[in-house]
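Researcher: Last one for today. Full complex below.
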Amino acid sequence: MAVYLDHAATTPMLPAAIEAYVRALAVVGNPASVHSQGQNAKRMLEEAREQVAASLGCDPIEVVFTSGGTEAINLGVKGLFWARQPRTRILVPGGEHHATVDTVEWLERHEGAVVEWLPLDALGRIDLAAVAAAIAANPDDIALVTLLSANNEVGTLQPVAEVAALAASRGIPVHVDAVAAYGHVPIDFHALSRAGVAALSVSAHKIGGPVGIGALALSRRATVEPLLHGGGQQRQVRSGTQDVAAAVAFAVAANALQDLSLENARVAELRERLVAGVSASVPSAVVNGDPTPENRLPGTAHFSFPGCEGDSLLFLLDVAGISVSTGSACQAGVPEPSHVLRAMGRSEVEARGALRITLGRSNTVADVDALLAALPAAHARAAKAGLADRVPGR
Amino acid sequence: MSGGVDSAVAAARMVEAGHEVVGVHLALSRMPGTLRTGSRGCCTVEDSMDAQRAANIIGIPYYVWDFSERFKLDVVDDFIAEYAAGRTPNPCMRCNERIKFAALLEKALDLGFDAVATGHYATIVTDADGNRELHRASAWAKDQSYVLGVLTQEQLAHSMFPLGATPSKAEVRAEAAERGFSVANKPDSYDICFIPDGDTRGWLAERVAPATGDILDREGNTLGRHEGAAAFTVGQRKGLQIGTPAADGKPRFVLEVRPISNTVVVGPKEALAIKEIAGTSFTWCGVAPAHPDIAFECHVQIRAHADPVPAVARVVAVSADSTAETSASHGTGAGTELVITPAESLTGVAPGQTAVVYIGTRVLGQCTIDRTVSAVSADSDGAGGTDGSADSVSADSTVAVDA
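Model: Here's the assembly. Have a good evening.
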């Protein structure tokens, strides 16, 4: 039986969510239809929207369901950028998820955006002084600020409210990518929105819901240009027949976040055991991200193993029945040195040897101990194989 | 697993032979091409997906290993540099030598594997003393022992070629179809994998800056101008644009490309015939011959699909001066040279090409050709071939490619 330690990639669906999903799939009716079956579907959809809204601390009307986190981020970033034309500047920290990086780079290539990358410190935290300085330089030309609330690789939390306050003082909207944070740290969109956050993206499958649905919490005061045009569903912001069954299953997972603090405390303890064990068995390992518990995601442990390729470790652990991640992957499966570690000023060698281990609901002490038992041998072999650019026959 | 039919069948056969098998796809480019029609390479997203689907059907784990940096340095950059130096490199041999049976094999051994199996058509035979020999495949039409000629005894000891005994490619395709592989009818790749549209000359022209220079006859008289020496191929007849006709009225062919002086030498067709080839950069495949300095009979093959030609070969000592400018970066022959004299003259031979030496079906070794000697002397100065310096080499864009 494989030990699953990659909950940040996706976490198992809750049995109750699967059950609700299947049941809802059997219900006939387009929620936009006027007849009673359509009304029944609409009722299920709006009940789900209310529950998701509750988990985000926003009003139901502020929840725009999307096909997932990537679409939510695209809608938040592109939508705000277009709505704010002719302003051109986008402020973005380094080390963002590719859904943001590739979106702002696309806007730069095709829509005349000017992207300004803001520095991270060695722990992966944004430099507020740099944010303030960037905003102070011609604030009238800034279309938006976008940032992760928790880094999906190293787990460091960002001072979102402080960034939003700096932006709000000049009327600049902020988009927050909360995909990695959702379910692990409380999200209060009302408070964030008062501080200046216009939009916030989440995804259902990171919290035990299904893949294929996410949401953009969009402040009722904010305006975004839609990506999709059609039937005008969801405030004209996101046209397309709404996926009732997925929304219902999403809502079941969102409801289950009510016992967040107990579960997160349990997972944080597992992480402590994991980090201590890795540091003891492989002393050269570097623990990445902010070590202070209140400044980080509870279940994310991120390491660099200098002299190893992260993908060698991943392979060897996989063979030993343990699923972990290097933290980043591209379509062709070619591992890249972690761009997050590079943004944190770390060396190429440390960025290559990155390994992300993320704990979740299904994990126990036995799972952590299984990893700790397999790691020393895997590390020894991966270190022997060395880096991919080594000269053969050395 | 390249995503082609051969490696998929090879993997399946390894599983059935009782080995514990893991499928590995080599990522050789950081910028894999988009979805191309058919297969012209080995590093597209589609190829990677095809390889993974085959691994799924076989029921083995599948991983992508990234060798893109080494591939760029050792194969792509080497190809450009060799070409710019007027030589005719074979990137597939270089990939076998530096990537598949070096970087990949070493990483695999370090990670705990025992061997690398590939879909190459060749056979490994173990002699009474446990030494490995590389032999031609049963299916001679698909035989790929030529491009494996660079392998050493140590590499052969950790290599397996499960397709070597298959009578024909058709059988491999039939087996693939029977196994349900989607790639059963995928076209073979004949092109250089990193040149997606197959336009080798155009690809190189973008990377090697051309400069105009003189076209000379064998006596050194200037006959015309060219737009860049590297664009010419030994044996080429068309496109020379020489105003004055030859004295004898016969057509003229490119005999040599001299990159350092940026000149192209032309002459009669007969002068293309080569009676001797030699190189200082040679390796033995498996056990080395006991007395390579005593001339021995063999067959020589100068391209992947050329016919083997009877020849006599021997290793001779050479002075340091004459080897100084030749590329001896990866051979055993420092201070020595492998000289091969074919029984009949060869055509279409250019420095940079690899000559593989066979004894019967066995690959004895290989040598990168540094110099050639023409079978026909020029009338006045006897300059019938290249003179061993790095400035007298030939370029051939028709690079033979396998696997």
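Chain B is about 20% helix and 25% strand. The radius of gyration of chain B is 22 Å.
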